[in-house]
Amino acid sequence: MAEKFSELTYEQRLEALCKTKMQQTKEKQDALLVMDQDDHGRILPPPELREITEYMGPSGEMVRDAKLNNFKPKSNHPSGGFFGAKVCGENFNLFLKAHPVYVNPMSSLAGGYMAYFMGYRDPSWPPELASNLEDEQRKYGIYPGIGATQHFCQDMTIGFKLGWGGLLRKIRRYRKLNPEKSDFYDGLEQVVLGVQDWIRRHVDVALDMAKKEKNPTLRRNLEEMAEINEWLVSKPPRTFREACQWTVWYQMIARMYNGSGSMGQIDVWLKPYYERESAAGTLTDEEAIFHLACLLLNDTQYYQLGGPDAEGKDTTNKLSFLVLEAVHRLKAPANIGIRVFNGLNPELLRRGVEIMFEDKTGFPKFLGDKGLVEGFMKNGYSVQLARQRVYSGCHWFAIPGREYTLNDCVKINFAKVFEVAFWDMMNDSEIRPSVDELWRRFEMHLRRAVEVTKEGLDFHMKHMHKVFPELVLDLLCYGTIEKGLDASNGGVEYYNLCIDGSGLAAVADSFAAVEQRVEKEGLLTWSQLAEHLKNDFKDAENVRLMLSSVPRYGRGGTRADYWAVRIVKAFTRFVKERPTPAGFNVIPGLFSWASMISMGQTVGATPNGRHAYAPISHGASPDPGFLRGGSAPTAMAVAVASVQCGYGNTAPLQLDMDPGLARGEEGLAKVEALIKGHFELGGTMINMNIVDKKQILEAHQDPSKYPNLIVRVTGFSAYFASLSRNLRQLVVDRILSEET
Amino acid sequence: MTVDEVINEILRDKVFYETSGGGVTLSGGDPIVQCGFSQALLKKCKEIGLHTAIETAANCQWETLVSLLPMLDLVMMDIKHIDSEKHKNATGVSNKVILDNAMRLSRTKKRLIIRVPIIPGFNDTKSEVEAIAEFVKKFPNLEYLELLSFHRLGEGKYKALGLEYAATNLAIPTKKKIKELSEAAGKSGIKVREN
Lengths: 740, 195
What we know:
heterodimer, A: alpha/beta, five-stranded mixed beta sheet, B: TIM Barrel, 9 helices, 6 strands
């Protein structure tokens, strides 16, 4: 009895919170079956409010979602959907009203989020608004990004300065100056009023819980929580804890509204609070770590630690280490990258690598400042601006509050383009097939695919603000409230739209295979190859093996490596040769997110020996098994560095390494050398996993055996047990094929 | 492969030598067995400015070893046992030439690392390791003595070559054992590392 009411330490509270997180994760896995995406901090609605729906997910698997059954949006369109700032804002306000209160007395921060607003947008795009680009988009395997949301970064400091009350006053002030934009301001106001109301309800519940709470630590915590949130309904945060709490409210509505998870430089915008209170003696490091842990448990957003400020000075400070420590204690999925540059505090990198090998949770990521900054400058920007482009998403960067990017939303499936080019050539009876002819057609179709993509981007930019504006991100941008314009519609200063290529290895290896086996060695004619591809290598396993045994991209110095570079150079040239027809700058990158499976499902057998409809290779990564019997990390690091597009968007290096690689001080130094070497060569990002092969195989057979196993799938991190079998298979194949 | 082909492979990882302070290590088997090629390759490496090292059992004529020394920054050689009889029983050869070469190497200015592969039942006792440590303790160019824990990674190679792998039944030494041996070796005052 006495123990139940004794004071609790931060350690005890964190242990309880982690246990709750695991329980909630298990609940989600049971109810939703498959979560082929970032592990979100989302909690399931209580059973009486829960409605389960099913739909086809982006990774090609049927997925389930849990909606709140007590919310039905108002429609303003014959299709039954709702479009436009005013009704989107109103509906989101109602959504928040329907959203339950969540208070965990162990946490220092109130709030938990339970549903996704986008799940109620049906249809998500007005059917009468057709781009007429669908045929070519399908032809080339283009993910056009039309209707894509968020994927750029806000500036948290705007919110910290104004608070919700200040934001409301700002909206009302500028509304008077732009009366013709009243719908937009209505939408923004509704969002702010909605979150204020939601916070108030938490205050009431926290006070109520405090009255009933017998444990003194928790009672005090609940009383503080109520007081803090009473203040934060309208006022800006005063303390470190309040700043963390303000961040929680914002990140929850950003995530719920349209999936946003972009945070940015947490060790910069929380620093003034941390330093002031540390100096005053009102905040210990243990307390700060606890608040950070509670913030991180609330949701897995994307953050950057360290890196140069606009003038080139390292932003690393004590807080950077505390953030690392918070994740280290949580051992939960986290998406935080250390920005590696010449001036980085070496202890931050060292601590990051130590945690990577100790915790084996694929944390942290490493970001290559040199490639990022030099690349972004090639678009015509200054070095100061380039340095301000911070890590805030899966594989991407954005200038907080000032840049609209559509990062990670727009993809071209190189393997599909290759397939089009191949059959285009084979079906042309006027010419003789050859590698040169195949390349010529591949270039032609790739150029057309890029053009179609650019047209799609313009279509999105023209209409998106009328369909589903960025009401939450708009709140913390420069220019959006001032001008009354959505971020997708001229509200911010910079527009740099991202186009990623996917499946590079599949195509590079295919070119090398036909060059070697068909053209050089004459082991196969073009017609025979075409037949085998059509029949998916039926009764021709020897042919398939012969094709797949040609030295592959990633090996270094092979023809496949040559083709990979040639493909990326062509892609980059086509993306950069012109802005979109409406004049938007476009930046190329290489990334698939989790779409390797769904992209592969539309592509038949390919000359690299890949079976029809099998997943295609991820982003810039060599295919697994590209270096048989050899040690892959340095080879991969060199290969991926050689295919960077070079304009400031990334082509991440995906490394899955054996735990034995970093034995002792020397081992860690070697891994650091690998990281620095890749970035020296122009690499932009490293995603790493330290995985025990035996464990991953066992977990693949029975994921429930290792509920805590966390892997960095591609850019994002997730519980292995939450992934679909197909996505788990891709991760396992990748890991098993690398021998060290 | 030709020397140029090997150099091309080597140069692919050049940036990592720079960031890690590492370089090219000739290993094997034993690179001494292909002395001519090793010489040519090392010469080319030095021309390019790469740091070079060799891992060898040094069971060869001194002149052979000497021919490579000018092109080497670091020599890593194995000493498995001080006792000649026991050495012959286990490896099939006497250790006289090896120990002589070690002595001669100690009189050069070459950076030297002596490695002791710890094999269960052969040299995994304190007295044996102490004896090796005593032998090398006066070497002025010794960087450190390195105890290498026995592993069975070579088993695959033997099988692939159709050879019998005689060490199938040997257990891998525990971390505790290696630590004990390391402390014993360290009593002679030399720097000891474990791997």
